[in-house]
Specification:
19 strands, Purple Acid Phosphatase, chain A, domain 2, single chain, binds manganese (II) ion, 2 domains, alpha/beta
Length: 383
């Protein structure tokens, strides 16, 4: 039986103010193509389908159409809510959709009720246990967890329900789906922190007992231990910290007898990320940066004083410039105190310095004479 593991679509997310929906839809289309080409039985989406609890209308359309296309391509779809999704909104119509082969799970009280995928290869059926993201304060009541308030405690109880159900199924193949921060996982800049200070980590032992665990939450693809537990990562980069990531899905084979086989399948890169560094002039002229012209660009400017309208000027060459950092050379920094810097300088000199600082050019003679007149006038008035 063949599964496609993806997560963290974040439909409706923007990248430094630019919409990404076309790229997100293209990524789902590429998955639908894999379903057809690779004979995928089940697509598992491990949470964060949307970027927000109340997603924009075009993101809702994208999800509705994306799920239909995966289903039409021949796969059963199993998805859980992540920390960005609204469980109640996402599971609207869930029982009707389940009849059509699209299973949306947002309620932990169903943790012990698997999606049963009938075997088509002569082996046992596959039991998929979708566990939505659990907010400890809410889930501890739903799970009768008493005063337990950790992610580990509530997720452990939910997975216990899944394991208890699995134990009644005789010889069976199984898969758990969860949205959590597994201990040892590597975060990047685009996940929302679940709990400050690391109290969100869930130990790996919590996930024992399943043939495969499809995780969502961390946006970089990663594998734990013997390879049974993995993050697929997001289908697109959502921050410049993901420059080195390869984005894709896991294609997971769970044969009747042989061991698990998992393969990484990359998604098409729609726009690469590039980091460029130099003075504005260098960035605009040097052929060295030609490759970045069609990329999302993060520019670090090393000019001593940030030139005016630098983003506008960068975009004349780099249409997709998205982020600007300023890193002036250390030697150019003045370490004197403010008092030391203004000591012995006249009012007109200080204004001239200010003008030069904000415009990047020395103050013009005309401006200085106006300034001199005003200073004289004010001095006369207060004398
Ligand atoms: Mn996410």
């Amino acid at each position: 039986m063949r599964f496609l593991h993806t997560s963290d679509w974040h439909l409706g997310r923007t990248f430094h103010g630019a919409g990404l929906l076309d790229e997100q839809v293209a990524a789902i289309d590429a998955m639908a193509e894999m379903v057809r080409a690779e004979g995928i039985d089940v697509v598992v989406v491990a949470g964060d389908l949307y970027d927000r609890q109340i997603p924009p209308a075009d993101a809702v359309t994208a999800l509705s159409e994306g799920l239909s296309r995966l289903r039409s391509a021949g796969a059963t779809v199993v998805a859980i809510t992540g920390n960005h999704d609204s469980p109640v909104r996402l599971r609207f119509g869930d029982r009707l959709l389940a009849q059509a082969g699209v299973h949306l799970r947002g309620d932990v009280r169903g943790a012990g009720t698997p999606v049963v995928v009938p075997a088509s290869d002569g082996g046992s059926d596959v039991f998929v246990y979708p566990i939505p993201y659990l907010e400890p304060e809410v889930a501890r009541h739903q799970l009768a967890a008493g005063s337990e308030r950790t992610h580990e405690a509530v997720l452990g109880l939910a997975l216990d329900r899944a394991r208890a159900d699995l134990a009644t199924r005789g010889p069976a193949r199984s898969l758990a789906v969860a949205h959590a921060f597994a201990a040892g996982g590597v975060p990047c800049d685009s996940e929302r922190v679940l709990r400050v200070g690391g109290g969100d980590r869930v130990s790996l032992g919590c996930f024992d007992g399943f043939d495969y665990v499809a995780l969502g939450h961390l946006h970089g693809r990663q594998v734990f231990g013997d390879g049974r537990m993995r993050y697929s990562g997001s289908p697109l980069p959502y921050s410049f910290s993901e420059r080195a990531h390869r984005k894709g899905v896991w294609v997971v084979d769970i044969p009747p007898e042989a061991p698990l086989h998992v393969e990484a399948v990359d998604l098409p890169v729609q726009r690469e990320l590039a980091a460029v560094r130099g003075t504005l002039d260098e960035l605009l002229r040097s052929p060295e940066f030609a490759e970045a012209e069609e990329c999302w660009v993060q520019a670090t400017l090393t000019d001593v004083v940030l030139p005016r309208d630098c983003m506008g000027r960068l975009r004349q060459r780099f249409k997709w410039a998205a982020s600007l950092l300023h890193d002036p050379p250390l030697t150019a920094l003045d370490h004197r105190t403010y008092r030391e810097r203004v000591a012995g300088r006249g009012d007109v000199e200080l204004v001239a310095d200010f003008v030069a600082h904000v415009t990047g050019e020395p103050a013009a003679d005309d401006d200085l004479s106006v300034c001199r007149e005003v200073v004289d006038e004010v001095s006369a008035a207060v004398a």
